[in-house]
Amino acid sequence: SRGAAVSAQRTVQVALMSLKVIFCKSTRLSCRWLAYFVSSEGLAFLPTLFRRCCATIAEGEPTRQLLSATGLLLTIFTRLLAACNGPVLHSLPLPTVAADLLELIAMLAPVESASSTVAAACSTLECVVALEPAAAHVLRQTSGFGDTLARWLGAAGDDTSATPATRLLIAAFVKKLCVAASPPAKQHSGDSFHSWLLASLLSHLFGNFGVDPTPYYDVLSHLLREQAPGTAATVTQRIIDHLRKYRPIEDFFGSEDHVLIGYLRILNVLLGTDAKLAAFLAHELVPLLLSCIFEVNPMGCDRIVAVNKLTCKSTASRKATFALLETLCDAEPTCRQQLISSLAAIHELCGGSADATVVARPRNCTSGDGRGYVGLKNNGCTCYVNAVLQQLYMIPLVRNSILRASANKDADPLLFGLQRVFAHLQESCCQYYDPVQFCETYSRSDCKNEAHNIHSQQDADEFFTSLLAQLEKSLFGTPEENLLNMAFTGVMVQQLSCPANHTSVQESPFVTIRFVWLQLVINIFTMIR
């Protein structure tokens, strides 16, 4: 009892641990003691002792000794039940024990330190249901048991219904419970425990999920693999209709939409077990799934992959979508050709070149404000090119003006290539972009019409000056023709004064400051100070 001394609680705990050692070891002596205990009144006393533990737990927050003692008691009880014969089982109130176990799980599910006790209660309940079919009927008749079970698994629940560890334990328990309560030959019957539980959990399929519902979808997928004929078509159509108006909550910085992932996995299970249904819905589902993982959006004269409107942004949801597409292609051969044609159209919209970006996985490097950055691949000795391009991109005025400029791929290949680089740096979700096409179209002012050698190291200042000269020609006559002067050009003033109050002033524009001159200015200011 709760009022017992700590020493007494520990004594009971040690006694139960001793009983566990005696009964749960596969030795000849253990079997003799087990047979003696079953034939005596000890087995009949265990349910009474168990109810006493439940009553004490219901009084308030359970102690560590009480939780341990209850778990040991349940482990012993499960071992004894497995060794019982028919007459002894009929003398035990197993339906009542099942109801008490259900109540115990409900009390301990929200307790962080009670996961081992909950696991023991689940194992005992599974054993009771397997030995006494009437116990499954008691569970079904328990008011709100289906809703409670769904809440424990994460459907229509909150953080107070069960701990994450308990949800996983209950999910594994429910799978075993269905096997124990409904033999495979009776699972498809309308009055089986399997059918009743499936109907109860399906009623929460489109509910409000306050916590991670992954255990719920895991159990539901397990039940749907053995569903009755006709269930797959109804559930599949409901999920498809729901997905058409679903508003995802994913982003590219680690957030996963577990509800969306659950829907996709359930669809994969349903269509994987019903090839005819998959073939029937393949041509309807392929465009829907492609719109979840690919979205093409024009920007200026270029077309790139826009990720802001994508439904599936996380790795898990995209993998689930790809798996579903694979299932559809296996079920309907013509679907594979439809998929290839759709991907070819997207590739053409992306520019039709080998560097067209396809959103493959989220980038995991984020800046301080949560925004991810995209790198540039070094194609040999192009670190100076990448450094200059990244610096230009990080200037908002330059970035926005370049992307807004009107460029023709044939007439202005350099400006078009720079737009492509900036567009991928801004919109791509890959970790890096390969600017090899830009390097091939870039030609230095002193080597006109000659492709840039990416295997030759160059000076960053020389490349920057040459690039600005080339861009100035491309932007001439456009609304952005004064961009470079506004962003980079300064005025160097050289002033000469003589004692006769005669001063000569000469102004010259510049776009870079040589380090030697910058160091000289710093030294002069230091001397003056």
Topology, element by element:
Elements: H1 6-23, H2 28-39, H3 42-58, H4 64-82, H5 86-90, H6 94-108, H7 115-131, H8 133-141, H9 145-153, H10 164-181, H11 193-202, H12 214-224, H13 231-244, H14 258-273, H15 275-293, E1 296-299, E2 302-305, H16 315-331, H17 333-349, E3 375-376, H18 383-393, H19 396-404, H20 413-427, E4 432-433, H21 436-441, H22 460-475, H23 483-487, E5 490-498, E6 502-510, H24 515-528
Parallel strand pairs: 3-4
Antiparallel strand pairs: 1-2, 5-6
Helix pairs in contact: 1-4, 3-4, 3-6, 4-7, 6-7, 6-8, 7-8, 7-10, 10-12, 11-12, 12-14, 13-14, 14-15, 14-16, 15-16, 15-17, 16-17
Structural class: mainly alpha
Count of individual beta strands: 6
Q: What is the end-to-end distance?
A: 84 Å
Output the strand order for the largest sheet.
1-2
- What fraction of residues sit in β-strands? 5-15%
Rg, rounded, reads 36 Å
Q: What best-fitting shape do the alpha-carbon axes yield? A: elongated
Instruction: Assign a percent range to the helix content.
Output: 55-70%
Q: Describe the main β-sheet briefly.
A: 2 strands, antiparallel
